[in-house]
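Design job #97: recover the sequence.
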């Protein structure tokens, strides 16, 4: 990565964000962000500050100069242990767990080198043998639903349930997503019913 533009685009890519999706997250006009990163515009202080505000895990020195470690890993491990929801009841609605309700984690876990927003135990066998009942998965929020990758596994939160599946766009109806797993027939869900999506980035196998 030769310059600051490449490093910022690398951050967006690692977090599954298009420039359009990133601009919404950063609160900056899409045209402005695109011009600065993909055209001839200079990268503004406002953009750098916004990126560092939303992605504090990345070293500011690395963003600005490309020097040192990419991640502030020690700061994250010391100050931001991962919330673990061991007994999250499905009837409570996962939507509430990730919002501003009073739902609290059962514990917090420090896992050096692991990047995840939340940890959950897995119930059910729909993704066996890739993910098994009793495994623990770490998930990270997908901020841009247009960045869904067919080879990744996602936790999909709807108004009624949460599930772990692979996803792909419907061939003829852009309002729908296919949900796929090794052990059950594929089915569709309506995008409007999806409250949130999380990529499954960490798997800890049961002993």
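Job complete. Output follows.
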């Amino acid at each position: 990565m030769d310059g600051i533009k490449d490093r910022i685009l690398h951050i967006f890519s690692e977090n599954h964000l298009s420039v359009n999706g990133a601009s919404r997250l950063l609160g900056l006009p899409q045209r402005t962000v695109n011009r600065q990163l993909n055209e001839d515009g200079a990268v503004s202080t406002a953009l750098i500050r916004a990126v560092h505000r939303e992605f504090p895990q990345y070293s500011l020195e690395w963003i600005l100069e490309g020097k040192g470690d990419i991640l502030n890993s020690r700061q994250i491990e010391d100050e931001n242990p991962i919330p673990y929801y061991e007994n999250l009841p499905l009837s409570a609605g996962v939507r509430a767990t990730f919002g501003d309700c009073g739902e609290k984690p059962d514990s917090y876990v420090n896992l050096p080198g692991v990047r995840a927003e939340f940890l959950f135990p897995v119930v059910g066998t729909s993704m066996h043998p890739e993910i098994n009942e009793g495994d623990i998965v770490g998930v990270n929020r997908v901020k841009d639903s247009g960045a869904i990758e067919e080879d990744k596994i996602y936790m999909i939160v709807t108004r009624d349930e949460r599930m772990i599946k692979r996803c792909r766009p419907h061939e003829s109806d852009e309002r729908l997503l296919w949900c796929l797993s090794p052990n059950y027939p594929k089915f569709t869900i309506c995008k409007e019913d999806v409250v949130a999506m999380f990529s499954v980035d960490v798997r800890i196998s049961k002993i």
